């Protein structure tokens, strides 16, 4: 297992290098201009100066290598310095990946955005799992019952209705008409005591509900299908024949085995938590990583888009590995040698 | 009777209280929530030309003078506006001397002096700084501090309108002590300074999160001890215009929302909720169609859309250009796409008032019959497919614009109107960042103009149109030789017009300038080089409890935030 893990990790390095090159090249070759969104009142000579000051004058391979060095070496060093509070080498002179729009280091922006994304999108994911499990289990156990029919209906709705619709719908009902929850998320809010915790809960309800519904819809289908597969297996009949109670059969035998593929699916979905929920973050102004990415794309902020996309790529490669390893641990029949 | 007296007494108390509120103490009105659906990215306007950033920064840093809502220049940090009459502008029109208000302090308590103003000019004029407001400092030869409270700006040419540098929120004064390590190539690296500038404005930054939110508090050193009325401000960003309007007009979570490009009927519904109101202001922005006088046919190869490539097969015919304009129902375009944020216009210069010509008002009324007659007389005959042609040239247009739902709606309307006069129109839209981007490698830019007509909104900074009108000088034509830089997209070239450009540069008297500007406008519009459609206003929403908003199209919308108060 350890051998396998090491091999996979070693293989991830060239994979990521290729990915980084593709991302950088694609974005660089795309017709785009950082000064494109500036007011027309800015004359072309000034635009040319701006492009030059952003480092666009250099050749493509040089810019790629520079970015690679900044991202792979300089930024990790800065992070280590920040966490440990020490200084390694001449950190003031170290070139950093800078956003063209905010002119600040990209990694600082990402660090600033992580808390709200993890909290809101992460909670939406957790809520989705918590809703999906019971619905999936009961739906499978009582297949074609009214509960299963309703569960199927709800998950079909949750799956097919886009979040930009459910989000606005919830705002119109709960913010405009009932006035129960705020429609705008306050990223500066600090939880210090019970009332402020309550404020935080209230402002998270709507976005988490939107994401929870969406995630639950997908996952509950997985749980149901996996449960159905296992319920028909011989070992279930054997367990029942041994005189096991139905509860033990269902929760100990069937559920455990059914969760093996579900856990993999959940692990594979974790990178999407980090990449944020672009639409939901926009609607509720959670302003996390998803919103950061979309504003960067709209503003032609290439270094920010390149870096964010690459971070997502790293996370996807990493969680693929985790999912594979988890699968091996949960199902002892699987061996990677 | 007793009850009546009681009511009167109560009314009197209320009157006293509300009168008192107008002269409230600094910070007595609590918290102000402002929503910009495009979040503020940076608080240094010299490194960002975006309106959202300029507006955000205008709460913190101020210019020497601002534009009020009528477009007049009013003093901010300056004691008075220098003019030729008061001797502030030199007789040869080559220098301007600003007097600064005495005893001004930065929010950190240090004194504000002329040296900060001089430094600001150095900062923006540094060749390696990539200053996005460099145009404000065009032709500036030197900026010097005569004494601590006097600044003299010298120009290399005669400047009849010397109010470029340090006027308006795009050109505010930054603190020398804070920014002196940030000159030239160091400018973008000064994240701390760019995010937390020290200013003289009504508010000071307490926390800044790029592309998300700015927290501010009342500046303790602000020059008017009774202002600002609000103790703290949140300037939140993100989302879209419709939901920003909702947050002010329907849920009341925010007090002010900026730039509401929302379908008119949706806004109407929201206003009906009774929590807020819309504020509009009309500045220089005009949505217009421009015609290509050169031949954009791909067959021309490298000479495509250049004067060398030859004239346009039919848009060089004045009758065709005139007919294009006559056939358009501008009122319909405004009603469908703009609502209260637009007015039909027949002028390139629709504001300020003194520059608005009336010579072209015939275009306000759609005249399909007249247009048809004009084309008949010019010899353009309808073929069997309903499209007019002459000598084998069909009146078939490629009409391009930036991607934007309102623009695509306008395109569809105009296409229909043109079909009624026997014109065939093909529509095309290009992503705004590419269309306006001016990337010489892209074939889809407004500058290359590989189409017959194109539409967008253009405007000019401040209130003086001299530079704007010089866009249509022969020298401004984008060509492969100048890397497609230049603003004369039409490839319009006339000695008459170039002479007017030269005349404008030598005219100092405001009334005479206005007269010349109108003549230039009438050349461009009268000859159909530019087909104006809509005079576009900016529209924002504010809560009914927020008072003192004076919506401004010439400067930052938040220009007078120091005077905003909460109705009690």
From TrEMBL, chain A:
GO BP term (any one): transmembrane transport
The organism's place on the tree of life at top rank: Bacteria
Transmembrane segments: 9-27, 118-141, 153-177, 197-217, 259-284, 304-327
Bilayer topology term: Multi-pass membrane protein
Cited Gene3D superfamilies: MetI-like (1.10.3720.10)
GO cellular component, one term: plasma membrane
Main location: membrane
Cell compartment(s), UniProt: Cell membrane
The keyword Cell membrane is assigned to this record: yes
Record domain ABC transmembrane type-1: where: 114-323
One Pfam family of this chain: BPD_transp_1
Keyword tags: Cell membrane, Membrane, Transmembrane, Transmembrane helix, Transport
InterPro entries: BPD_transp_1_N, MetI-like, MetI-like_sf
Family: Belongs to the binding-protein-dependent transport system permease family.
Protein name: ABC transporter substrate-binding protein
Automatic annotation (TrEMBL), chain B:
Secretion signal, residue range per the UniProt entry: 1-24
Compartments where located: Periplasm
Pfam families: SBP_bac_5
Keywords: Signal, Transport
Gene3D superfamilies registered for this protein in UniProt: Dipeptide-binding Protein, Domain 3, Periplasmic binding protein-like II
Protein's UniProt keywords contain Oxidoreductase: no
GO CC annotation: ATP-binding cassette (ABC) transporter complex; outer membrane-bounded periplasmic space
Predominant cellular place of this UniProt entry's protein: periplasm
GO molecular function terms attached to this record: peptide transmembrane transporter activity
Biological process according to GO: peptide transport
Family indicated by similarity: Belongs to the bacterial solute-binding protein 5 family.
Protein name per the record: Peptide ABC transporter
Annotated organism of origin: Kumtagia ephedrae
């Amino acid at each position: 297992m350890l051998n396998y893990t090491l091999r996979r990790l070693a293989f991830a390095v060239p994979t990521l290098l290729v990915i980084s090159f593709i991302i950088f090249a694609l974005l660089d070759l795309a017709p785009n201009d950082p000064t494109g969104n500036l007011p027309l009142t800015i004359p072309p000579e000034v635009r040319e100066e701006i492009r030059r000051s952003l480092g666009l004058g250099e050749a493509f391979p040089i810019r790629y290598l520079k970015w690679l060095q900044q991202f792979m070496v300089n930024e990790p060093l800065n992070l280590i310095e920040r966490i440990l509070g020490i200084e390694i080498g001449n950190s003031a002179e170290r070139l950093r990946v800078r956003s063209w729009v905010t002119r600040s280091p990209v990694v600082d922006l990402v660090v600033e955005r992580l808390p709200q994304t993890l909290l809101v999108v992460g909670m939406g994911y957790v809520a989705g799992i918590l809703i999906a499990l019971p619905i999936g289990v009961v739906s499978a156990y009582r297949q074609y019952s009214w509960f299963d029919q309703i569960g199927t209906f709800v998950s079909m709705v949750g799956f097919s209705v886009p979040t930009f619709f459910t989000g606005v719908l919830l705002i119109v009902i709960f913010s405009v008409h009932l006035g129960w929850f705020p429609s705008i998320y306050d990223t500066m809010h600090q939880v210090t005591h019970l009332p402020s915790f309550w404020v935080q809960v209230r402002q998270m309800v709507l976005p988490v509900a939107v994401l929870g519904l969406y995630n639950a819809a997908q996952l509950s289908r997985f749980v149901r299908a996996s449960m159905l597969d296992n319920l028909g297996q011989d070992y279930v009949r054997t367990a029942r024949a041994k005189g096991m109670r139905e509860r033990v059969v269902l929760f100990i035998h069937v559920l455990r085995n059914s969760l093996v593929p579900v856990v993999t699916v959940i692990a594979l979905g974790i990178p999407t938590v980090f990449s944020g929920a672009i639409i939901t973050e926009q609607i509720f102004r959670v302003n996390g990583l998803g919103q950061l990415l979309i504003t960067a794309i709209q503003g032609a902020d290439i270094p920010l888009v390149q870096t964010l996309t690459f971070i997502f790529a790293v996370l996807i490669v990493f969680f693929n590995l985790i999912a594979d390893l988890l699968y091996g641990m949960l199902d002892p029949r699987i061996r990677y040698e | 009777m007793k009850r009546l007296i009681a009511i009167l007494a109560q009314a009197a108390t209320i009157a006293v209280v509300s009168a008192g509120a107008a002269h409230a103490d600094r910070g007595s009105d609590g918290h102000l929530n402002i929503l910009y659906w495009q979040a503020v990215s940076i608080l240094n306007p010299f490194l960002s030309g975006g309106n959202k950033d300029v507006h955000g920064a205008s709460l913190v840093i101020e210019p020497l003078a601002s534009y009020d809502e009528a477009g007049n220049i009013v003093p901010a940090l300056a004691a008075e506006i220098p003019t030729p009459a008061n001797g502030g502008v030199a007789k040869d029109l080559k220098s301007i001397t600003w007097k600064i208000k005495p005893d001004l302090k930065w929010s950190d308590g240090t004194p504000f002096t002329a040296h900060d103003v001089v430094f600001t000019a150095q900062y923006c004029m540094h060749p390696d700084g990539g200053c996005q407001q460099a145009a404000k400092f065009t032709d500036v030869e030197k900026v010097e501090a005569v004494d601590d409270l006097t600044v003299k700006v010298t120009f290399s040419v005669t400047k009849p309108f010397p109010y470029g540098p340090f006027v308006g929120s795009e050109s505010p004064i930054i603190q020398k002590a804070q920014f002196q390590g940030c000159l030239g190539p160091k400018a973008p690296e000064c994240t701390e300074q760019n995010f937390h500038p020290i200013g003289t404005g009504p508010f000071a930054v307490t926390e800044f999160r790029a592309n998300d939110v700015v927290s501010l508090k009342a500046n303790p050193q602000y020059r008017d001890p009774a202002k600002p009325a609000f103790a703290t401000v949140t300037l939140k960003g993100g989302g879209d215009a419709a939901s920003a309007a909702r947050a002010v007009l329907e849920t009341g979570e925010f007090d002010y929302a900026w730039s509401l490009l929302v379908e008119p009927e949706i806004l109407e519904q929201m206003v009906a909720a009774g929590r807020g109101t819309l504020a509009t202001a009309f500045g220089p922005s005009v949505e217009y169609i421009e015609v290509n006088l050169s031949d954009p046919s791909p067959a021309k190869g490298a000479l495509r859309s250049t004067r060398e490539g030859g004239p346009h097969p039919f848009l060089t015919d004045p009758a065709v250009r005139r007919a294009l304009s006559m056939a358009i129902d501008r009122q319909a375009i405004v009603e469908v796409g703009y609502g209260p944020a637009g007015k039909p216009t027949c002028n390139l210069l629709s504001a300020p008032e003194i520059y608005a010509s009336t010579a072209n008002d015939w275009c306000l009324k759609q005249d399909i019959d007249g247009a048809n007659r004009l084309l008949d007389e010019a010899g353009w005959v309808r073929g069997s497919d309903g499209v007019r042609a002459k000598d084998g040239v069909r009146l078939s247009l490629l009409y391009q614009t930036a991607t934007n739902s309102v623009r695509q709606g306008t395109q569809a309307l105009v296409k229909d109107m043109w079909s009624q006069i026997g014109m065939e129109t093909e529509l095309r839209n290009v992503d705004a960042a590419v269309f306006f981007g001016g990337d010489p490698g892209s074939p889809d830019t407004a500058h290359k103009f590989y189409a017959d007509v194109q539409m967008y909104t253009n405007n000019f900074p401040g209130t003086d149109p001299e530079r704007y009108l010089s866009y249509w000088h022969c020298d401004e034509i984008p060509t492969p030789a100048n890397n497609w830089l230049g603003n004369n997209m039409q490839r319009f070239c006339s000695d008459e017009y170039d002479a007017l450009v030269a005349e404008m540069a030598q005219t100092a008297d405001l009334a005479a300038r206005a007269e010349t500007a109108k003549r230039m406008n009438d050349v461009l519009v009268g000859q159909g080089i530019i087909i104006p459609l809509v005079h576009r206003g900016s529209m924002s929403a504010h809560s009914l409890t927020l008072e003192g908003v004076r919506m401004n199209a010439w400067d930052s919308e938040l220009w007078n935030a120091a005077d905003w108060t909460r109705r009690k």
